[in-house]
Design brief:
The complex is a heterodimer of chains A (282) and B (319). With 282 residues, chain A is mainly α. Chain A has 15 helices and no strands. In chain A, helix 8 packs antiparallel against helix 11. Helices cover 68% and strands 4% of the residues of chain B. The chains are: A mainly alpha (282), B mainly alpha (319).
Chain lengths: 282, 319
């Protein structure tokens, strides 16, 4: 193990490490701690300039209720769920199929098509912006939840296919060969042999895509106009304008936007990290 | 050959099932990806040769948009800022490695610490931008507060009113063209370091302990051990960290939109934001000019994408 395990070092450095670790963590998370503390403050503290000291009153519940009452935050949150969940289902399903097609069969275009998905996943959003927006306007998908779902699902399919293809490629190919010799149809091999083995990859992709799409801001700005189809990221920005100088409400709204992906991360940590490393670093 | 099935007795589908099947599996993803990603790229390349406001008919202007770009100071500022972003964002890679090395210990509660350090990556950049924008605020932010504790004192005048007098006014980081871009990048590094850290932590798990022990026997330790024994084994993690950081730097948009909207005086613009601002400008859309900016950004990105694909191709060959 590198660096040298702390247990094998001298007592002072062992104790020093144990003490410094929580201190370092608090410094690292200071921005989040500060915003959380602000979100529980009352207006009195904000007005009197007590922004970084200890709160004189705790208004956790009142502030969060105020955000929901004074703004369409609840609708933004629901929109985020309506956009994110269908996107995850569509993108992961399509990628299971495509990844299987690209990894199990030997045909000349397999590698170029795989690279097409990889490259498409890395292009700057701006090169897609004008045509995608124009397409959405012409098909009536502009400023709708469905319009955002369709785009995100299509775009994320690139990343998901990259992931799935590499995952299936690493599975024991003899399993598939054996099933084929038995005369099992291709679709049945996919469904009964491969899908059960793909469960960890599906879980990893689901949490990862959930976070990516939830945190999207660019496409929410480009593909929506009014309030009805805005997700929480774009909503928080709108609220920031509405709650000028009401830092406690802005903070509460921002934290609300962060809760679902954070919960997702803590519940599915192992899968999340496996997904982030593209399975390349195990 | 009597036991082999005569080809004619099987249907065409049965005979060719291994060459048809991949296309059946691929077609939904391919069609979808083509409509929303592949075709729009080519459309953008073509739109960049037109003048078009999205409403009336597009007018073909050849390469005029690119000629205009060449003479557009805002374009050069954006490009310069993109380079600054690329260079400074790369700090996330060594910083991520440093944090990972710091956390690569087995003490009680380490899992918890690791997830807390990873935390910033999970939250939206919009939120990160809001937090730091508020931190930098000279009147209400933490920068202002620290500044005041050093350079300011409270003065009570004869009537008894309290006022604050400062020997130096606190810096308005996001309002000053000299500092604004660096302020945004600093905020952006926070989640990016967390990302690189997690890549390295998983990589460090895989480093062979025999080689480390062998290195220790040979008297290598500290920096030499890191350079000659550990880093070579971390190459997959480093490669991935560089790729995601380059892409993150060139894609930077959310935090600029939240923190400065390209200002003050366009000094924090990058190509991605300038493109958005131009194409969907409040003074009338300029789809053609915007697409020309996007095309430039696309080709910059393409250099990195090609390099990445080339590495993957070599890997495929080996595998």
């Amino acid at each position: 193990m590198f660096p040298t395990p702390i247990q094998r070092t001298s007592a002072p450095s062992r104790i020093g490490y144990q003490v410094f670790l929580p201190v370092a963590m608090i410094i690292w998370l200071l921005p989040l701690i500060a915003i959380f503390m602000t979100s529980v403050r009352g207006l009195k503290d904000i007005n009197s300039g007590n922004i970084f000291g200890w709160p004189t009153e705790f208004k956790l519940i009142e502030n969060y209720i105020a955000v929901f009452e004074a703004s369409p935050a609840l609708m933004y949150l629901m929109n985020s769920f309506y956009i994110t969940i269908p996107t995850v289902i569509v993108a992961v399903s399509l990628a299971c199929l495509a990844g299987y097609g690209l990894s199990i069969y030997r045909f000349r275009l397999a590698l170029p098509l795989f690279f097409l998905f990889v490259a498409g996943n890395f292009v700057p959003f701006q090169i897609l912006m004008v045509p995608v927006r124009d397409f959405s306007v012409r098909t009536g998908l502009y400023d709708t939840i469905q319009g955002q779902v369709l785009f995100h699902a299509a775009f994320q399919t690139g990343f998901c296919t990259l992931f799935m293809r590499n995952f299936i490629k690493a599975l024991p190919q003899e399993l598939i060969e054996a099933a084929r010799v038995e005369g099992v149809s291709e679709l049945k091999i996919f469904w009964y042999v491969v899908i059960p083995l793909m469960r960890p990859a599906i879980a990893a992709l689901a949490v990862l895509i959930f976070t990516f799409v939830w945190n999207d801001f660019f496409w929410a700005t480009v593909l929506t106009q009014g309030e009805t189809a805005k997700p929480i990221t774009a909503g928080v920005r709108a609220l920031n304008g509405q709650f000028v100088a009401n830092w406690h409400l802005v903070s509460a709204a921002s934290l609300l936007a962060a809760v679902p992906p954070v919960a997702m991360f803590f519940l599915m940590q192992r899968h999340f990290i496996a997904g982030l490393t593209l399975g390349a670093v195990k | 050959m009597a036991y082999a099935d005569p080809p004619s007795r099987k249907s065409w589908i049965a005979r060719n099932r291994l060459s048809i099947a991949p296309w059946l599996f691929l077609s939904p993803a391919l069609i979808f990806f083509a409509i929303y990603v592949v075709i729009p790229i080519f459309q953008s390349l073509s739109i960049s040769l037109y003048e078009w406001n999205g409403l009336s008919d597009a007018v073909y202007v050849g390469f005029r948009n690119y000629v205009d770009l060449w003479d557009d100071p805002k374009f050069w500022i954006s490009l310069k800022n993109n380079v600054i972003w690329l260079v400074l964002y790369m700090l996330a890679v060594p910083l991520g490695l440093a944090v990972a090395l710091f956390l690569n210990q087995t003490v009680p509660g380490m899992r918890f610490y690791k997830s807390m350090f990873f935390f910033p990556f999970v939250i939206s950049q919009v939120v990160v931008g809001l937090i730091f924008g508020w931190f930098y605020n000279p009147d209400f932010g933490i920068v202002g507060a620290i500044w005041k504790s050093i350079y300011c004192e409270e003065v009570i005048n004869i009537v008894g009113n309290v006022s604050v007098r400062c020997s130096r006014t606190p810096p308005d980081i996001l309002g000053d063209p000299r500092f604004a871009t660096y302020g945004i990048i600093f905020a952006g590094l926070w989640p990016q370091v967390a990302y690189c850290m997690i890549l390295y932590l998983t990589g460090l798990n895989n480093v062979s302990s025999e080689q480390i022990e062998a290195g220790r026997l040979d008297g290598a330790k500290g920096w030499r051990m890191l350079r000659h024994v550990v880093l070579p084994q971390l190459w997959p993690a480093t490669f991935l960290a560089v790729v995601v950081t380059v892409i993150g730097a060139l894609r930077s948009f959310d935090m600029i939109a939240i923190m400065t909207q390209g200002g003050p005086f366009g000094s924090t613009n990058v190509l991605s934001y300038y493109m958005f601002e131009t194409a969907l400008s409040e003074y009338g859309f300029r789809y053609g000019y915007g697409s020309a900016i996007a095309t430039v950004l696309f080709f910059i990105m393409l250099i990195f994408i090609s390099f990445f694909l080339w590495q993957m191709y070599k890997e495929e060959r080996r595998g």
